[in-house]
Each structure stands twice: as C-alpha cells, then as structure tokens.
Specification:
By secondary structure, the protein is of the alpha/beta class. Helix content is 39%, strand content 21%. It has two domains: 146 residues, ATPase, nucleotide binding domain (Nucleotidyltransferase, domain 5, 2-Layer Sandwich); 189 residues, ATPase, nucleotide binding domain (Nucleotidyltransferase, domain 5, 2-Layer Sandwich). Strand 10 and strand 11 form a beta hairpin. Helix 10 packs across helix 11. The model has no long low-confidence stretch (mean pLDDT 96). The structure holds adenosine monophosphate (AMP). GO terms for molecular function: acetate kinase activity. Its cofactor is Mg(2+); Mn(2+). Belongs to the acetokinase family. Keywords: ATP-binding, Cytoplasm, Kinase, Magnesium, Metal-binding, Nucleotide-binding, Transferase.
C-alpha cells in the first residue's frame, strides 16, 4: 500500500510518499511560497535526480495537482498512475479535546477541525486547505488526520488544568494540550524496543528539541505531562519562543513599551528564546559556533536553554517518582553533542553515568549515550513524524476495509 503524507502550512506544503510493506520512502518534497507567482517546488524521487521548479501556484489545490503530476511523471515519477496512491495522511496540529487518536476524514471530522481553528489559528486552517486540496484532486482516496495533541490527551486533570477560574476551561477550553505528540509517541516506542523492555513498564522522559522544543513524561506508554501547554509557547526555551515566563510580564511589557496584543504575541513567539538572548541566531549550530569563538551572549543563551531543559527533566522524574530512560530527539536533540553532554553531566543525582565517546559517535542512529552500568539510560533516537502519520493512516484504512 502507498500512503502520501502531507504537512500543509499556510503558504507551504511538505509531502512524503511511503511504500508501507517495505517501509520505504518513494519520494518526498515540498512546495513553498504558495499564493505567489514564484512558488518553488522541490521534488526528490528515490534513486532519481532532484527536480526544482519555479512557477505560479496560487493555491493548495494547484500545489497538490503539481505534486501528483510529478509523482507519475515519466522521467521524475515513482508511480505509473495516481490510482496507486491508496490513502493520504495529514498532519494536523490541534485536535483539542475532541481527538484522542488519529481518525479517517469525514464530514464531521472536518467540521470539528474547523471548530478548533480558534485554538490553532495559524495551523489548522492551513491543514484544512491541504485536506480540501486532496479531496479536489482525488475525491475517492481515503484521508486520515494525525494530531500533534492526541498523544497527550492521556494527561490527568491535575497536569492539564491551569490554576485559573474554571470558567475559562468550561467556556473557552483553556487548558494544556501539548504538542509534538507524534514524535513523543514514536520515540517512546522506539526506546522500549531499543531497551528490549515492555513500554508498559517504563518511565520515560522524551525531549523533542528542535526549533520548537518540548519534553514529555511518559509512564507505561501514556503521556502524563508535557511542557507545551494550550499553545506551543509554554515550556522550554526555544529558538525564537520564550517558553515559561511570569504571565504578569505580558501586561507590564505591553504598558511600558506600548505594545498591542499582536505585538506582544509576536515578540514572545518570534523574537525571544535563543535569538533574543544571543542576539545572533535561533539556530543552535550558529549559537555553538559563536560560543566557540568566545561570544558571551551566545554562551548565556546556551546556558539558559540547557538549564531550563535540565529543570524539566528533574520535574518529570519527580512527577513519575523516577525515570528509567531519557530520550533526546529532533534537530538539536539528535545533533548537539554539547547540549546532551551539559545536561547529562548534571544528572548524576538520578544515576546517569554519561558515556562521552558514545555521545560523539553514531550520528543518525538510535543509540545509548550512557554506560552499561548507568542506572538511568540516556538514548538518542532520530524522530520520524511522517512515518507515524503514514503508519496510523495505514492502520485506519486497513481496519476500515476489514
Ligand atoms: P528541527 O526543528 O527538529 O528540524 O530542528 C532544527 C534545529 O536543529 C535547527 O534550528 C538547529 O538549531 C538544530 N541543529 C541541526 N543540526 C545541528 C547540529 N549539528 N548541531 C546543533 N544543532 C543542530
């Protein structure tokens, strides 16, 4: 079975075509600058040369049509016909409280995703464009939606509620939802397989550290807490997002700097985090290079980033009354030897025995970076959110057929 995975943004669209039986990616690519005359389409078919096209793509339906044409193109294609695409899986950021797992798309599901636009105004409308664009091009192909929030729906009320008047929750659904759920779910399953132990018996702390970053406490395979909240702004310090701060700063800064709601929101989401403290970049590679060159602000940004992550690990060990393994994943988690080293060296109180050589080797592979005797294991597991979307879509389509 071939599954097309789509991650639609407001002006972009990423795709991967999976052959499920042998778990291969037949093609992947992206369309950027949708809505412009100079939209860019990059298509990377397996074992064939990359295709770059610049053309007018004014909306998502045209973008999908162009992607489908490339997938069956005589020279650049990987399929004979689009009829070989058996299902499409979409990433959807916000599933609110309605979606506790992935589902097949039908009229009610689309209506519910629309009702959730308020909670994810930048993301959910774009995902809907992707769903409708597929529907317009391939009306008979089943579609599934996989939510970033769904995995965290197992959090207990004491973890997901904010200590504010309950009317905000009852009337406006103000609560913690958590994000990166597909990634936390995937790496927790892989960690159990790597350790050769049943997931149901493990206490795990998964750290998805990329441009956006979040930690999750996973007890027996179920998320019991996670650092992102009602929006992806809460929790860890990130590339451009502040993470946790005193909420009283918001009205104070607005008053002092004469900022509008939109401006303060943009400041905390787009102009904070590593970028704000270093004054250099939101990219950990550039921060690390600047630190090596002796830049004090880059060093401070890194120290704050690492410190805040380490505090969350401590909090989640406390939340679960212990931890068996800590997992690093995503761009920074998988690639920054320095961040992992600085964090792990301060976790001796938990029983972490860091293995410096293991931390430096095996890039791109699932591996352990603690010694064989370490009481708590620390693993690096490359995430694969697209694969989880493909796998969930495959399962849903198969069970609908049976
Ligand atoms: P993601 O959002 O998971 O794609 O992660 C993107 C981030 O990973 C980038 O902003 C970089 O800061 C970080 N990253 C990628 N490669 C490296 C590396 N070799 N060392 C440190 N950070 C890296």
């Amino acid at each position: 079975m071939n599954i097309l995975v789509i991650n639609a943004g407001s002006s972009s669209l990423k795709y991967q075509l999976f052959q499920m039986e042998d778990e291969t990616v037949l093609a992947k690519g992206r369309v950027e600058r949708i809505g412009m005359e100079t939209a860019i389409l990059v298509h990377e078919p397996k074992d064939k040369g990359e295709v770059h096209e610049v053309s007018e793509i004014l909306e998502h339906t045209t973008a999908i049509r162009k992607v489908l044409a490339l997938l069956v193109h005589p020279e650049h294609g990987v399929l004979e016909s689009t009829a070989e695409i058996n299902a499409v899986g979409h990433r959807v950021v916000h599933g609110g409280e309605s979606f506790k797992s992935s589902v097949l798309v039908n009229h009610e599901v689309k209506q519910e995703i629309k009702r959730l636009f308020d909670l994810a105004p930048l993301h959910n409308p774009a995902h809907m464009l992707g769903i409708l664009a597929v529907e317009a091009n391939m009306p008979d192909v089943p579609q599934a939606v996989v939510f970033d929030t769904a995995f965290h729906q197992s959090m207990p009320a004491h973890a997901y509620l904010y200590p504010v008047p309950m009317v905000l929750y009852r009337k406006h659904k103000v609560r913690r939802y958590g994000f990166h759920g597909t990634s936390h779910n995937y790496v927790s399953e892989r960690a159990a397989a790597f350790l050769g132990r049943p997931l149901g018996q493990l206490k795990l702390i998964t750290c998805h550290i990329g441009n956006g970053a979040s930690c999750a406490a996973i007890l027996g395979g179920k998320a019991v807490d996670t650092s992102m909240g009602m929006t992806p702004l809460e929790g860890l310090m990130m590339g451009t997002r502040s993470g946790d701060l005193d909420p009283a700063i918001v009205p104070y800064a607005m008053g002092k700097e004469d900022l509008t709601l939109g401006e303060i929101s943009s400041m905390l989401n787009k102009h904070s985090g590593l970028q704000a403290i270093s004054g250099i970049s939101s990219d950990m590679r550039e921060i690390t290079e600047a630190m090596e060159a002796g830049d004090k602000n880059a060093n401070l940004a890194f120290e704050m980033y690492e410190y805040r992550l380490r505090k969350y690990i401590g909090a989640y060990a406390a939340a679960m009354n212990g931890v068996d393994a800590i997992v690093f994943t995503a761009g920074v988690g998988e690639n920054s030897e320095l961040l992992r080293k600085r964090v792990c060296e301060q976790l001796t109180y938990l029983g972490v025995e860091f293995d410096e050589a293991a931390n430096r080797s095996g890039r791109g592979q699932e591996r352990r970076i603690t010694t064989a005797n370490s009481k708590v294991q620390v693993l690096v597991i490359p995430t694969n959110e697209e694969w989880v979307i493909a796998r969930d879509t495959y399962r849903l389509v198969q069970s609908a057929q049976n």
